[in-house]
Design a protein that fits this description.
This protein is an alpha+beta fold. It contains 4 helices and 4 strands, in the order E-H-E-H-E-E-H-H. The chain has a 4-stranded mixed sheet with strand order 2-1-3-4, with helices on both faces. Helix 1 packs parallel to helix 3. The longest helix is centred in the first third of the chain and has 12 residues. It is globular. The N and C termini lie close together (7 Å).
Amino acid sequence: MQPVTIYTTPYCGFCIAAKRLLNKKGVDFNEIDVSHDPELRQEMMQKSGRHTVPQIWIGEVHVGGFDEMSDLERRGKLDPLLQG
């Protein structure tokens, strides 16, 4: 299983949905809360080129946000990506 990292904030509905999907699939993930740490948010923005949360990585692949991860799931491409 590829390592999964997700940058979040506690009050973000899309973050909650992304974590719910990963939990439903039994995927462990490293959650990085950027809500109170401007340096972590800056790190996320530098790595992703985006300023919104969630930002999700599966292994070295930047998936994007919840919409992109959900689209991968609908197309049957999320599980193979998680498996590496």
